[in-house]
Amino acid sequence: MTALRRLTGVGLAAWFLLPLVPLVLWAAADVWRAPAALPQQWGSSGWSAAAAAGGWAAAGRSLGLAAVVAVLGTLLGAAAAAALDGGRLRAPRTITALLLAPVALPPLAVALGLDVLLLRLGVPAPVGVVAVLTVAALPYTTYALRVALAGMDRGYAEEARLLGATPAVVWRRVRLPLLAPAVATAALLAFLVGWSDYVVTLTVGGGQLVTLPLLLGSAASGVGDEPTVAALALSAVLPPLAAALLVARLARGRTG
């Protein structure tokens, strides 16, 4: 069974990493003409062009946007999961369906509709982008934390109450440590929603918030600039990959 798990892990890693090989080669190539299997001239022109096009600034905006969405989405998802788990809400199925609606509805249609509403309300474009993406992240954060709450051993919290701990202490010293892996997973999912978004940032942001996906999409729409596109693509892939590996390691450390 262990050998099968290792083989599955290697297969999944290869499935994900192999498509990155051409990107790595293109990002390190100055000249690569067909039918050559490898670049004829190596260099960093793609990274220089990506930086000159505003790649670092766009990456900073993407990181800030993703961080804000991760914090807000995780906090609101935790509140929604706790309310649904506590059984204090009426019509919990209806509320769950509403929370899952952003996943079922077409993103472009939702973005266009909300853009009109936000414009009429006079909401600044960056604030509108954060609000819409936080709502888009709620299904993932709520589900991840609700599953964790449902599977959590309630005995630890009951013992802490019997020993005189207040509800705030029980939550901070007992429940939160038990939920830490789920909280990290929920934060990662919300981070990915904010980091990778294109449609909402383009539509609601109206060009005022140029993130890395927008810059990458603009560069990829042309031809003949493969090194720059590859450099931007790697810049968009590596941070969330690093965050996913970090969360996996933290979760493994908690459970191991």
From TrEMBL:
Gene Ontology annotations for the cellular component aspect, listed alphabetically: plasma membrane
Organism: Goekera deserti
Gene3D superfamilies: MetI-like
Biological process (GO), any one: transmembrane transport
InterPro entries the record matches: MetI-like (IPR000515), MetI-like_sf (IPR035906)
Subcellular location: Cell inner membrane; Cell membrane
Transmembrane segment boundaries: 63-84, 96-119, 125-145, 176-195, 229-251
Family designation: Belongs to the binding-protein-dependent transport system permease family.
Cross-referenced Pfam families: BPD_transp_1
Membrane topology: Multi-pass membrane protein
Keywords: Cell inner membrane, Cell membrane, Membrane, Transmembrane, Transmembrane helix, Transport
Highest taxon listed in the record's lineage: Bacteria
Ranges where the ABC transmembrane type-1 domain occurs: 59-247
Name this polypeptide is given: ABC transporter permease subunit
